[in-house]
Design a protein that fits this description.
Elements: H1 2-17, E1 29-30, E2 35-40, E3 43-50, E4 53-57, H2 66-72, E5 82-84, H3 90-93, E6 108-112, H4 116-120, E7 126-127, E8 132-133, E9 143-146, E10 151-154, E11 157-163, E12 172-176, E13 180-182, E14 187-190, E15 193-196, H5 205-221, E16 227-229, E17 235-236, H6 239-242, E18 245-249, H7 275-280
Parallel strand pairs: 4-5, 5-6, 6-9, 13-16, 15-18
Antiparallel strand pairs: 1-2, 2-3, 3-4, 7-8, 10-11, 11-12, 12-13, 14-15, 16-17
InterPro entries: MBL_Glyoxalase_II, Metallo-B-lactamas, RibonucZ/Hydroxyglut_hydro
Region (Disordered): 253-290
Pfam families: Lactamase_B (PF00753)
Length: 290
């Protein structure tokens, strides 16, 4: 599935979303001393390193340039032994699907037990306001199934998994070392702050918004202000910005307002994602446009 789906998105989704300021991926590069990211068209995958150990968060498209771009960051796919999966959409698991080039065939996959029902065929993924069913995803890697709120360690890296259903039924976000929150397709950053992720791809829009409010409450009750890292629209270290519009959803059917001058016209155009920039420019956080 992943090869066909990746090619489809590169061609047709580029046309659908061009000029709407929906997708605003980070270029390949470094966020800080612990987090690096690779850009794959409109999606980002992330690598978290601590004391010489690196884990991967999501696995992007079935993307021909992944190994090349990892090399820009001095990362070797063979050293990736653990991958946290937020959800099973092909722009988040393409590199570990059965028809991929198996760069990570020996890695252990961590995925929510509810989300895994898509992989077993118990549930079918529906998109575009439930008008289309997507093919079943197949992943042959060893899997560890996670429950909501489950904490665990990978080496000396502390991880907590929180269920945030809505975009998919079993979507997880991952809080790492109480400092970084990898949110996949839970939050969408607009020019004026964070919204619930785009409407057309949600299993349940109302549930998606409720889940986002619950996630914010959990963070605030624990007095946590993590760096919040999204799958398609960058990152922020401002919790107020990140949850500014938690009760609203990004409407992917129209051009976004207010206008974001930093948003690419075509998120699938990677011409500005270069090795030189990767090695010389630190990635900037998302900020409110005044």
């Amino acid at each position: 599935m992943s090869k066909k789906a990746s090619k489809f998105q590169e061609k047709y989704m580029a046309m659908i979303y061009r000029g709407k300021e929906i997708f605003k991926p980070l270029n390949t590069g470094v966020i800080d001393e612990h987090v690096k990211c690779v850009r794959e068209f409109v999606a980002n995958i992330f690598f978290y390193t601590k004391n010489g150990q690196t884990i991967m968060i999501d696995a992007g498209y079935n993307y021909e340039r992944l190994k090349e771009k990892m090399e820009w960051l001095d990362l070797d796919p063979e050293n990736i032994k653990d991958i946290l999966v937020t959800h099973q959409d092909t722009d988040h698991v393409g590199a570990i699907e059965a028809d991929s080039n198996q760069l990570f065939k020996n890695a252990t996959i961590y995925i929510g037990e509810i989300e895994n029902k898509y992989l077993t065929g118990e549930v079918r993924r529906k998109v575009i306001f439930h008008l289309f069913k997507l093919p079943q995803v197949t992943i042959n890697n060893k899997k560890i199934l996670l429950k909501d709120g489950q904490g665990f360690t990978i080496g000396n890296i502390k991880v907590e998994a929180f269920l945030v259903p809505g975009h998919t039924w079993g979507h997880m976000v991952y809080l790492i070392d109480d400092t970084y929150l990898f949110t996949g397709d839970t939050i969408w950053f607009g020019a004026d702050g964070g919204y619930s992720f785009i409407n057309a791809l949600a299993e349940d829009i109302a549930l998606e918004k409720r889940s986002l409010a619950i996630l914010e409450k959990k963070l605030r009750e624990r007095h946590l202000n993590p760096i919040i890292i999204t799958g398609h629209t960058g990152y922020s270290d401002d919790i107020n910005f990140s949850f500014a519009h938690r009760d609203e959803v990004c409407n992917s059917m129209k051009k976004q307002k207010p206008h974001d001058p930093d948003a690419p016209y075509d998120g699938y155009d990677e011409s500005d994602d270069t090795e030189e920039k990767t090695r010389t420019i630190r990635l900037k956080r998302a900020n409110r446009v005044k």
